[in-house]
Amino acid sequence: MQDISGSGGGLADRTVRLNIERQDNPRSKPYWEEFELRWRPGMNVISAFMDIAMNPVNRHGKQTMPITYDSNCLEEVCGSCAMRINGQAAMACSSLIDKLEQPIRLEPLSRFPVVRDLAVDRSVLFENLKQVKAWVPVDGTYDLGAGPRIDPAVQEQAYPLSRCISCCLCMEVCPQFPEPTRFVGAAIINQVRLFNLHPTGAHLRQERLTAMMSDGGIHECSYAGNCVQICPKNIPLTTSISIVYGQVMKQAIGDLFQKPELTSARKEPGLR
């Protein structure tokens, strides 16, 4: 086995070196802190954080605070542990120490406000999801019964889209997000396509597409293609963007021809 720690000796002598960008609160200045841990087989970035939490001492032997970060499932499902690892946006739980060049440089996502250390505020994602009504409307005061049957071909088309874990990696690498355009990001557009495919979700199709025409909508996409390359779930994001763009254009043309008729009817009620 190759010794990537840079130190000689056997496996018992191997260490893991981390260089972590830290920030005590949203208003304080960031700073760097180095750690050196004993190497263990199968380590990932999250397990390294756990080792630091058990013994929060930095590389210079100074007592410090455990690293603050977001994490939950530890198996690339929840999407919460996204960060920059050696300059690349990635999921910490699936980033194996043995595959990373040392010292490993860890930084928070750069497109979101820092809460503390590597934890960031991703509430803009959920606000944008609310803007496009990314849900199936099933509210009612009585049992609505079984939902509509979905064609297997539609199910096959929708499944890859449903794998989004809200990790925000596509937003992190997007040159348009969030400034200066306030672009909502590829993940949001993908959800518009997903819920427009659902027979019940399609009831809100017009409202979703109208939202896509507003500030920060689909017209702000520069088609850089970074999103589809970084997505940990291999979602066809650029395909979703192209399809939703076509849906938006079709609705915009329809609105263009409908609005003059409605305006004319309102202005000349006596001509009936």
How do the helices and strands line up, and which of them pair or pack?
Elements: E1 15-22, E2 31-38, H1 45-54, E3 82-85, E4 88-91, E5 104-107, E6 114-116, E7 119-120, H2 123-131, H3 152-158, H4 169-172, H5 186-197, H6 205-212, H7 226-230, H8 237-267
Parallel strand pairs: 1-5
Antiparallel strand pairs: 1-2, 3-4, 3-5, 6-7
Brief descriptors of the model:
272 residues; alpha+beta; Ubiquitin-like (UB roll); Fumarate Reductase Iron-sulfur Protein, Chain B, domain 2; 2 domains; five-stranded mixed β-sheet; two-stranded antiparallel sheet; 8 helices; elongated; disordered N terminus; disordered C terminus
What does this structure look like?
- With 272 residues, this protein is of the alpha+beta class.
- It folds into 2 domains: 11-120, Ubiquitin-like (UB roll); 123-263, Alpha-helical ferredoxin (Fumarate Reductase Iron-sulfur Protein, Chain B, domain 2), CATH 1.10.1060.10.
- 32% of the residues lie in helices and 12% in strands.
- Strands 2-1-5-3-4 form a 5-stranded mixed beta sheet, with helices on one face.
- Strand 3 and strand 4 form a beta hairpin.
- Helix 5 packs across helix 8.
- The longest helix is centred in the last third of the chain and has 31 residues, at 237-267.
- The radius of gyration is 24 Å and the shape is elongated.
- The model is unreliable at 1-8 and 263-272 (pLDDT under 50).
